[in-house]
Each structure stands twice: as structure tokens, then as C-alpha cells.
Amino acid sequence: MRKLSLVVVLLLAPSLAHAWPWSRDMANQISVKPQKSVDEANPGMTAFPKRSVPVAGTTVMVKDADAARKMLNPIPADDKSVEQGGRLYAIYCTPCHGKSGTGDGLVGDKLIMKPWNLTNSNEMHNWDPKDYPDGFIWGYISLGGAVMPSYANDLSATERWHVVNYMRKVLQKGQAGQAATQATSTGSGQAK
Ligand code: HEC
């Protein structure tokens, strides 16, 4: 009697579905498996459609800070751009740099390294475009700093220029953008 009940218990015990000869796994059927080629002449994995997966450099769109510094702002700082930049600044930058831009954001307050002053009340530097051209700011947003994260995944290249325009026009009270010596040639900035 004991032996029989043991057999019953074993039979009813949960077990892997494929353990029984009559069970069939739905995965084992004639179908195209994920990432498998449907073309018999070209077996193996199908190539991904272009730009459907992240490719190095396509979000940041610049090699490093030095290369960014040389880029020229391709977006005119008109009302529309400044307004858009202000909207994006409020979302992405105020937590640290604050609404004022001086670095008094609530998150910034908690950081060991304080967010730097983005206005021209900056004691370290006054944002003279000769020393800190638009490309420098754009590069900082794209690449981030020691503590500051990169915003290249959140903001498109063009959106980053809008934020630069907002910084210049509003936070830096209309300080002229990129250095005048550079402004003669235009369009070398990579817009998306
Ligand atoms: C998580 C906090 C944080 C956020 C959010 C943030 N920053 Fe920063 N930022 C910093 C810190 C901290 C520094 C100081 C330098 C460093 O981290 O390397 C800095 C430095 C900078 C600098 C260099 C300033 C200088 O004087 O050279 C610029 C420009 C800048 N941030 C722009 C922005 C913009 C624009 C945004 C929004 C897209 C932004 N930051 C969002 C924390 C932040």
C-alpha cells in the first residue's frame, strides 16, 4: 500500500513538461526562429536594418570635448529656439543648475561637486565666447563632465543647440554666441 501511494505521489508531482513522451513543446515547430534568415540561400542571422540598433557615436555625434569646442552653432538663437531650449533646460538642467542657472538646484545641492554657474555672474569665468564658444557648451551637454551625466541620449543634437541658445540669451542675458572670428563660416555643426 505504501509503495503504491509513493508511485501515485511521484506521478502527480510537478515535473518538466517535456519529461513525458506525449508532451509537445510549442517551441518545437516548423517556424522561422527569431533572428534566423528566411532565405535558404543565405542562412544565418539576418542583418539588422540600418540604424535599428545603437551604433557608437550616433547619439553623442562628436569625438571629444576638443572636437566639440570647434563646432559652430548651426541653429540661430531666434525666439522659437530659445523658447524650446528653455523648455528643455527646465526639464533636464534645473534639478542641478537651478532655474536661475547659478547651480542652486535641489539635486545639485546634494552633490559633492556643486553644479557650475551657467550665468555670467560666474566668478570662475564669465562665459566669454572666445574662451567658451557655443561648441564648448554643446560638447559639455553631449559628453558630460566628472559628475555631470551626458545628455546625448535624452536630447538630440539639435535640441542641445536649443539649450545652448537658451543659456546664451536668457541665463547669460543675451551674451553673443560663438566667437565672432568663427562665425564667418557656418553649417559645420552636425545637426540631426
Ligand atoms: C545631475 C546634476 C546635473 C545636471 C542634471 C546637469 N548638470 Fe551640468 N554640471 C553638473 C556638475 C556637477 C558640473 C560641474 C562639472 C562636472 O561635473 O564635471 C556641471 C557643469 C556643467 C557645465 C560646465 C560649466 C563650466 O563652467 O564650465 C555646463 C555647460 C553644464 N553643466 C550644462 C548643463 C546643461 C545645459 C544641463 C541640462 C541639459 C546640465 N548641465 C545638467 C551637474 C549637472
**CATH topology of the domain at 65-171, anyone?**
Cytochrome Bc1 Complex, Chain D, domain 2
Helix/strand structural class: mainly alpha
CATH class of the domain at 65-171 equals Mainly Alpha
| Coarse morphology | elongated
Strand content: under 5%
Helix amount, in percent? 25-40%
Q: Output the helix-strand order.
A: HHHHHH
CATH architecture of the domain at 65-171: Orthogonal Bundle
Biggest beta sheet summary: none
Distance between the termini: 78 Å
What are the distinct ligands in this entry?
A: heme C
**Rg, Å, rounded:** 28 Å
| Strand elements, count | 0
Number of helices: 6
Mean pLDDT: 84
Query: Would you identify the regions where 5 or more consecutive residues have pLDDT less than 50?
Result: 180-192
- Subunit organisation of the chains: single chain
Q: Quick one: CATH superfamily of the domain at 65-171?
A: Cytochrome c-like domain
Description of the molecule:
This protein has 192 residues and is an all-alpha fold. The protein has a domain at 65-171: Cytochrome Bc1 Complex, Chain D, domain 2, CATH 1.10.760.10. 31% of the residues lie in helices and 0% in strands. The protein has six helices and no strands. Helix 3 (79-92) packs across helix 6 and helix 5 (134-143) crosses helix 6 (157-171). The chain is elongated. The protein binds heme C.
